[in-house]
Amino acid sequence: MKKGKWRIEYTSPTGDKISVTLEGRFTFEKIKQLFDLIELFSGSSYYDELSHSVTPITVKSKESRDLKKRLVLLLGRRFADKWFTSKDVSLAFFEEYGEHIPVNVVATYLARLHYSGLLIRQGSRARWRYHLSQKALLELSS
After folding, report:
1. Which residue among 46, 48, 113, 117 is least crowded, i.e. fewest CB within 10 A of its CB?
2. Domains in the chain, ordered, with CATH?
3. Could you tell me whether strands 4-11 and 17-24 are parallel, antiparallel, or unpaired per DSSP bridges?
4. What pLDDT, on the 0 to 100 scale, is given for residue 137?
């Protein structure tokens, strides 16, 4: 199981800024205690506003998983038998789903898929080309 990463930023009405980054496994109770601490520092009760600012982070994490799934499915449909680049995948993703994903984001996902053994990579850092591995083809066909 991956460790979570949280980034919380708060700017008080007086302009004071608190920025906290947490890495690891944290329960909701621990996060609530952190908000209580921030409330103490700010000198006023803004807990409700703070708790709402966490929701997009959690949703983004879920959307991130969905994005990875959609990318893998897209690779299986469009690039099962040919070499491709990050730019190729970004364009194909837009054609398939109508959503633009920046090439650098696609490149990050492709690198992770390569390290997990699902993609074969060729070329240099500026010109990586990828191909689905046998492992990926077996997983996609089952």
Report:
1. 48
2. 4-45 (no CATH), 62-141 (1.10.10.10)
3. antiparallel
4. 72
